[in-house]
Amino acid sequence: MKSILKDSSQHTTSISKIQKLTDEEIKKIEKITEVFGFRATEYYLSLIDWENPNDPIRRLIIPIEEELEKWGAKDPSYEKSYTVAPGLQHKYTQTALFLVGPTCFGYCRFCFRKRLFMDDDNEILIDVDPAIDYIREHQEIQNVLLTGGDPLTLSTKRLKDILIKLSDIEHLINIRIGTKAPAFFPFRITKDEELLEVLKQTNKKGKRVHIVAQFDHGNEITHQARKAINKLIETGCVMLTQMPLLRGINDSPKALSELWNKAVNAGLTPYYVFQCRPTTGNKPYAVPIEEGYKIFEQAKMNCSGLAKRIKFVMSHATGKIEIVALTENHIIMKYHQAANPEYIGKTMIFKRNPEAYWLDDYTELIDEYKIENPFIQ
Question: How many domains does the chain have?
């Protein structure tokens, strides 16, 4: 798989090379990287205020010992159960997902697909043609999401080949690209005119490209990131942003609202806030659902309607579940999307549980990823 990450001067995979860390810190952190890998661009590391032990960028990228706490699963959303071919998932009727990104510009410490960088079992889509044939044969599929890893770590030539093939499928309406490149390494976009031309031509063909850029804290939206966003907008791409709710990073109404407001100002439409998935190693970054909902709603008070379009959701094995409301005694959720189309729009009401991190903490009635829930309205 061809990747653009060739120049070692642009990124590091070795904690020992970070001069801002003490020898004692390096010794502790290297034990963690033996389990969960480390990667960061020099640009992203430069955003850290090393004098601030609580710096959010540091917490986003530098490993911490709490990651080794036993908690969660490697694949908490059971993505493998919706994999129809290596690197190709078809969970929702209208959407197919291509795992094309072989790596990332940086490894988020809370990554829900860290299994891709831990296991010998490779889930990345190598041969795109069978996946393209699958899309052609399934005319109910209206959009394809390119993800991974980060699709923009692919060579522009490889990405162009994928986009051209998708653009030729008549029933396909749009293409989504999930990326953190504008935050981790904006130069991937601003320094590659060929990439921008590929995106421009794809949009001209009528297959609108939606870039879903992940920004987890307002400090990531730098001058360089804004420049990358503007370049993408000029190609005709629709720009969105999403983020998980993260302990110690954006888990306050102030941090979250500032992030959304900066995103809107930069030309991004806030899309989803995700409940942090209960993935192995993610416990120190997770916020209980009910606490998260309160933070989410309070953050919206400091935003205009442009940011308030965002939804607080959980990517559960059975579907994308929106957290809708809290009453004194109950929490209300709704299926925003579902593997079983009959669940879409259905409401669930549970007795409140302030220690709940996932739907499974509210009900044990999940059998083979199909909910049989008497609370569904």
Answer: 1
